[in-house]
Amino acid sequence: MRGIHKNCSRTLKSGLLLAIAFAPFFLQATTLIHAGKLIDGKSDQAQTKMTIVIKDNLLQM
Fold this sequence. Notes:
Elements: H1 2-27, E1 30-38, E2 47-55, E3 58-60
Antiparallel strand pairs: 1-2, 2-3
């Protein structure tokens, strides 16, 4: 019975270590915002059918 508990604990520790090691790769998400009309602040005209991309906490258009 003791051997089973030891193997289970080792497997759990290995899985936790892998999850921590690969966490930054899963956190780098890209968000897309589809806007019907967008006022960019540079021109007086609203832009139509625009997509805003947010990647690594930076706005891209």
